[in-house]
Amino acid sequence: MTWTLLQWVLLLASAGQIHSHALRFITVEEQEAGVKIGSLSPSYSPSYRLLDERYVRVDESTGDLFTTDRIDRETLCPSHQDGECTFSNTAVVSPNFEVVPMIIVVDDINDNAPIFERNEIPLVIPEDASIGTAFPLDDQAQDKDTGDNGAIIYHLEDSDGFFSIRQDGHELELVVQRELDRETQENHFLVLVAVDRGSVPLSTTANLSVMVTDVDDNCPEFDADSPITATVPALGVKGTAVAQLKATDKDLGQNAQITFSFSRQISDRAKALFHLDGHTGLISLAVDAQVDSPEEHALKVFANSPLCPPAQTQVTVYIQPVMSQEPTVKIKFVAEHKNQVIVLRENEPPTVLALLELEDTSTAKGTLSLDKNSMPFSLKPQASSYLLSTSKPLDFEMRGEYDVTLIISDPHGTRLHRREVIKVLVEDVNDNAPKFEQTRYEKDIKENNEPGAFLLRVQASDADSQQLGKVKYSLTNGGRFRIDEETGVISAAESLDREQQETYDLTAVAWDGGEPSLESFAVVSINILDVNDNPPVFPTPHFYFFVSESIPQLSQVGKVTVSDADEGDNGKIVDLRILNDNVPFAIDLAQGSLRSTAEVDREKQDRYELLVVAVDGGSPVLSTTAKMTIFIEDVNDNQPQVLLPSSNLSCLTISPATQAGSMITKIYAIDEDSGMNSDITYQIIASKPALHSPFEIDQHSGNITLVQHLRGEDHGMHHLFIVVRDRGKPDPLQTTVWVNLQVNETLEKCHVNAIPEYTPPRLLPPMPVQDRCESNGWLIFYCGLCLMVISVCVLLAAVVVFMKRKNTKRKAEKNNVWQTGNLCELKPLN
Q1: What is the pTM of this model?
Q2: What does the alpha-carbon distance between residue 90 and residue 100 come to, in Å, rounded to a whole number?
Q3: Can you say whether residue 759 is alpha, beta or left, with left for phi > 0 and alpha for psi between -120 and 50 degrees?
Q4: What pLDDT, in 10s, does the model give residues 350-386?
Q5: Which end of the chain has fewer CB atoms at under 10 Å, N or C?
């Protein structure tokens, strides 16, 4: 290799003929090896050599340049994405070893789809962003192609009208289109689609996750289970908790901070007795509470948050007096309890919770009853005790905690001795199945999608608490689809093809964390939208038709069917035509048939090689071509043409000594038809003189032979009227010719001055067979007459013949030749 390169260097150095102007050739990337890109022959003569055959080679004799391998423009010119991609080479041409520089330009094709650097793009937007606010997106797709093939446009899917994409030059922004509310929807899952501008566009997607951040747009609210009554036992000690208030703000962080305060309208006595923690909402005793008679205080409490009007509630506090002989309640728990708190599973039927015994040392016995708000509980006397029970099953999802207030009063109910509160906690059980937001989801996606493309998100909620209410997702018949177990995001696991399956009906399953878990189902319908990815298809790449050359115009030659697996306009055949110019055929698109548009003549052209193209109505337009061969079948429309003899006046001199069985001459005729239509037969239908003729013609070859020895009466001119007929069906065609033969001893050139006259009989005699008399009935009479004359004059004739033959033999020994005539010109006669 090194020695060969050194030889070329020395050769170029010695040649000294280097052209400063470089030849420029253009090729397209990704072509197969062996594609011709140009030629050196228009400018230079052979031979041809290239110094470098890494990408192109040259034919040494023709100068044609061919690619040697696929050329990837992006690999060849990685730093010239937006410019022209070229590589250089040098040719050595002609016998004088001229050096010709070359530049090969590699044009781009759309073989690279846009690519996002990451599949998940996070974006944070405050919920008070006004409509029309734009947020820049730095995660833009890149395309290695150039020009329109590398230019990218963007659009959004699954935005539900909240956002749109604005593209200004190289800037890409997400624009808010609807008001946002974090408390309604905190996360928006969008699909950002990037499509290039190639003739056959390529696209890619990225998941755009928009998190809506909180602003202080919600005010605090007291919880429904905040206490509205509380009881302070006798001898209440400073710091004893009275009531725990609960309030919530739907905002987050600092925006959700709440402070509690008493209204200024509460009594001075209440202000002295109670303390409210501004941060926790805990009401406690500010001093030791010892009263001789029951007291009731209405405490109005505010829940405050910045920029919001305060929420308010009222807590009624009962202070029990110090009574030496007040009745007390002894609680004997029946149900499960922890730290004096009854724990009851939800959905239990009415259940006994505790046995209550009223211990009263006073003379006036007290009674025990329930506060009117202590529902759904009941208190029933049982001998000297009371049974505390639930009056109906409890539902954790409605309320998880109850304060059952017992009231101890005198028998007449006029005096309140004290209040006792029994706390009941409802324990959650897995009695709620997850519930989908929709029972049916539907999504459209274009076929040929990228694997992993985001489709939609299903969402279900569970009214149970903690682990029992935690929902996970699965697909029972996912097949080509996947679902994220935690988020419910459904994506396509592979590229989808509408022509294989147009609709997928999936079943999404949501199950909770209970033991056993509960499930619910939703139907997810995925509709695959068509793209024009299937060209029209002919049933065969090569059609063959046979048509008679006598076919009338606009007659159907055959059916040309074509189909397209796409649907709608993508699968509609909008154009079906013949690409060849000036052919006597056209395609009827409405009927799908090939028709003749002009006369055809097999003798001028016996077949037509056509190229037919079918074009669909999709975008981009796809087309397919097929070959079509039409064979023209022969019709007997050409009569035989006699080429020899060339004229009805041609004449041939025959020696009387010609041996019987000798071929005298030949009729040569042609027929431009084919097959049986061109099969020619020959027949002598008349001769002059008419008595008899010593000549016979072979009906197949046209050879005229002498069938008997020439006699004295045979001397002179013989005119044979011959019919040349083809064997066409249904009606054969024919032509005629006169063959003039002169029997003469001198062998001089004979002449015919006028064409003999022939009056045909009413019917043309039939074709001859091997026996001349049997095949020519009109000669039978003459043959019989001749035999009668010969029998009468046999003696005289024998003597004459004997003398004549003797004389003839002498002359034949001197002139042992015979003349074939001057049949020179080849001109057919009709």
Answers
A1: 0.44
A2: 6
A3: beta
A4: 999 888 888 765 555 678 888 887 889 988 988 778 8
A5: N
